[in-house]
Amino acid sequence: MRMLRPKALRSMSSSLSQSIKLLIPHSTATVIEAADTAASLRVPRRATPSHSSLPLSIFGRRAYSSLSQCPPSRRCFSLGVKMGEESISYLTQKEAAEIDEILMGSLGFSVDQLMELAGLSVAASIAEVYNSKDNGRIIVLCGPGNNGGDGLVAARHLYHFGYRPFICYPKRTAKPLYSGLVTQLESLSIPFLLVEDLPQNLSDRFDIIVDAMFGFSFHGAPRPPFDDLIQRIALLNDIEKNTRSSPAVISVDIPSGWHVEEGDINGEGIKPDMLVSLTAPKLCARKFAGPHHFLGGRFVPPSIKDKFGLRLPAYPGTSMCVRIGKTPTVNISALRENYVSPELLENQVLADPTDQFCKWFDEAVAAGLREPNAMALSTSSKVGKISSRMVLLKGVDKQGFVWYTNYGSRKAQDLSENPFAALLFHWNSLNRQVRVEGSVERVSFEESEKYFHSRPLGSQLGAIVSKQSTPLSGREVLHEAYRELEAKYADGSVIPKPDYWGGYRLKPILFEFWQGQTSRLHDRLQYSLREVEGRHSWHIDLAVNVASIKGLNNTTSDLHFISSL
Ligand SMILES: NC(=O)C1=CN([C@@H]2O[C@H](COP(=O)(O)OP(=O)(O)OC[C@H]3O[C@@H](n4cnc5c(N)ncnc54)[C@H](OP(=O)(O)O)[C@@H]3O)[C@@H](O)[C@H]2O)[C@H](O)CC1
Ligand SMILES: Cc1cc2nc3c(=O)[nH]c(=O)nc-3n(C[C@H](O)[C@H](O)[C@H](O)COP(=O)(O)O)c2cc1C
Ligand SMILES: Cc1ncc(COP(=O)(O)O)c(C=O)c1O
Ligand SMILES: [K+]
């Protein structure tokens, strides 16, 4: 049997939380929880709708009301943003400079280090919202100070993320740090454009403008050539605001030209779509009304947080950035992709659907998809009440598709009443879907036990403590039981598989391979198991999304057409 290697890094906490989340009431939202929620709601990068392909109401800044002001708190200014009752901290210009000094003084950081992390978090924030396929052309406008340096670093990371950056860096700083950054970009053949060479209409050439001209040391009125550049970006707001062709403007730390504390004083400045605040947002960020506010610069040690009384959202997982505030709402009805794929031809697929599945599975792995073995499992109770959930495929061969779960769970109860189920794989970036239907039975005790012991120890303990699908009196109960078991098996002794945990195998009687095509005229090939003269064999039906046309036959397939528009 083709075993799918257990994914060692799926953490125990994530597996447990699936079954308890719904059953425990939400606690009062704090800044951190709210930020985590926002972060967890982020759309995966590849699936993220492009800025330019969505209607105005989605990304248009008019759709977002300004944030209301709250009384200052402790040393830093704070504001009730739409992320729960708590608030986050905003820095004055003086505080920002002071933090900078402490970081690079007593705390031992070098400017190179901080700039690298700042630039990386800018690139990471951009990649969270704007995919490289639709928004590849980026112009990074760099100023003379460290904000400009952040822009140079961000450009390098964006290049490695698959974007096509261009740089405009009119006032170069003659310091090794900056010339090194320039050399690195030149070695990647990233073009440097003179201000005079920039197209008058930036929309013609670029999908994204990164404003890395000025940061928290900006003062007074912008001097040439930045005055003109700032004006051109500001004009984009007026002339092409919210049009499909308007590039997205991303400001690094401060929208250039804005007063660091007061913001866009005369209302004629840049109105960025995204602001990436570094270390902590500066006071002007209160006036930011665009849809995407991120925090980057994941290097602030607790001593700084304590000294300045900083309240900041937690970074999720290993991320270099975190969204501040509400995730923008989207016009769901306008969300759509046009699928463009090679044809899926009935005379080119493999005769056996399991072989065809394995071929597609290998291609999904080769394409770098995250968890291509994640599949929706639909079961039904004896009265026909259907439920679906995701499970992980753990093995596949001609005998069937295997997954593991709790035998006391709802799905297990369903399967005991109705041993038929459907599996669904969706490999989004390949425009592919596979349906599998069939009868289900438990795998042998030995097979389950072998697999159980191949899992990370945490997951083995998790399987013991989790009475899946059963309401809990509180999270702590589960964690306490886990800790007790952890102590019990701390000596390294074998953790016995509980009786109530094991595998299932679905033996297919039907497959459908779906390849998305333009205008919703998708290719669908159905394999069904048929009995001819006492022998079972697979028949391929072609099912495309046009109105029913019957009676087409050829030697390899029975063809019929099904509409599923
Ligand atoms: N710890 C952190 O938070 C980190 C922040 N980083 C980034 O650094 C900037 C702050 O960098 P800094 O170099 O102090 O300042 P700026 O990038 O804002 O630029 C200062 C230069 O700009 C000139 N300037 C100022 N005002 C004007 C103006 N009106 N017109 C034209 N030029 C202007 C200034 O020249 P002066 O002669 O006026 O002094 C400087 O040349 C911060 O915002 C973050 O982006 C780090 O990268 C990581 C750590
Ligand atoms: C990507 C993903 C993979 C999952 N894999 C499994 C799995 O292999 N086995 C399992 O029991 N639950 C898995 N879960 C959790 C299930 O979706 C579900 O919450 C749990 O099994 C309880 O389902 P039930 O109450 O309908 O039986 C997974 C969830 C996700 C999101
Ligand atoms: C509850 C539960 N059980 C089992 C699994 C499968 O985990 P593993 O890959 O360790 O077998 C998952 C995966 O998310 C899960 O959430
Ligand atoms: K800036």
From TrEMBL:
Pathway: Cofactor metabolism; pyridoxal 5'-phosphate salvage; pyridoxal 5'-phosphate from pyridoxine 5'-phosphate: step 1/1; Cofactor metabolism; pyridoxal 5'-phosphate salvage; pyridoxal 5'-phosphate from pyridoxamine 5'-phosphate: step 1/1. (6S)-NADPHX binds at N146, N147, G148, G149, D150, G215, F216, S217, F218, H219, G220, A221, D253. It comes from the Eukaryota. Residues 96-312 form the YjeF N-terminal domain. InterPro entries: Pyridox_Oxase, Pyridox_Oxase_CS, Pyridox_Oxase_N, Pyridoxamine_oxidase_dimer_C, Split_barrel_FMN-bd, YjeF_N_dom, YjeF_N_dom_sf. GO terms for biological process: pyridoxine biosynthetic process. Belongs to the NnrE/AIBP family. Catalyzes the epimerization of the S- and R-forms of NAD(P)HX, a damaged form of NAD(P)H that is a result of enzymatic or heat-dependent hydration. This is a prerequisite for the S-specific NAD(P)H-hydrate dehydratase to allow the repair of both epimers of NAD(P)HX. Homodimer. This is NAD(P)H-hydrate epimerase.
